[in-house]
Amino acid sequence: MLLKNAPSDVIKAIYDTCFDAVIRIVLQSDDHSEMQNATQCLASFYIRGREEILSWAADSGFTMRSLLDAASRLLDPDLESSGSLFVGSYILQLILHLPLQMAIHIRDLVGALVRRMQSAQIVVLKSSLLLIFARLVHMSLPHVEQFIDMLIGIPAEGYKNSFVYVMSEWTRQQGEIQGAYQIKVTASALALLLSTRHAELNKVNVQGHLKSSAGITTRSKAKLAPDQWTLVPLPVKILALLADTVIEFQEQAMADDEESDWEEIQGGVAESNDSLLYSAADSSFGRTTYDQLEAMAKAYNENEEDGDDDDLLSVSDQLNGINLVNYLGDFFVKFVHGDRQLFDHLCQSLAQAQRDAIQTLLRR
User: What InterPro entries does UniProt report for this protein, alphabetically (predicted)?
Assistant: First the structure.
């Protein structure tokens, strides 16, 4: 609270007074609430103070070592998940605000992230760690292939390598990720990964769709026979997830249209049931593709504005300015022009609604 929007001299005074104590809480406390608050406090220090805080201690390397020590404790796979709850945003802000200092630690960081994610018991924690991987994909541009290679070279318990593990988790969790910023970063990162056409992509199979079971599934039957999923190639799954993102935009745009129609009726501009039906059909299907895209982008942006304007995850990240509808549209166009045969092959495995959603963007 004190650090929020404080001028540099106030942040420096608070740093001199309690930075050391906050670090000790993260390193020594077993109280999860204390650790969560201390993690957020440390993030506020370098979000507000940026690289300037690295020169405040008498020992020039003290602050950075302290921040890394805190990250190491929070990423300890043996630490209970609730104690690590805010480590995702903490690490993300370190990468964004101290990129040069963090660059030399990326490989070790990725290994620690994988181990923490494998032991995580809280879905929100896993999602926040996946966001870091997505942001690292963007930071690896224009050499995303090298980031994939790095993941392939890092072991993951129970999996061929960390790339297989991370993509298995990412594609399973993507549909549950919440927040406009988080969706922008993760969806665009998936597009970047697919655009590499890295040979390893085709060697990875991930969770597809739930197999339907015959008859009524009782609790006892569910215990004896847990859910079974199909396996699909990773490129197919990524393309399906991107198509699902577009479908969500379309549904949000249509929902806003219906809400607008309802507001007109409430205002006294009532129509007969038949004329209202035709009006809704015209507004949804009669407009141009350009109008549809504009409505999708508008609906998404309005949804984004409903969030917390002071969200520390997004406030200083340039990726928050992405128009995801346009970004995915450009991606699909480049994909088609780059390898039409591969694109058509992958689309054959998609549902009709997913293919239609992609075609909407290709017809821009």
Answer: ARM-like, ARM-type_fold, TPR_IPO7/11-like
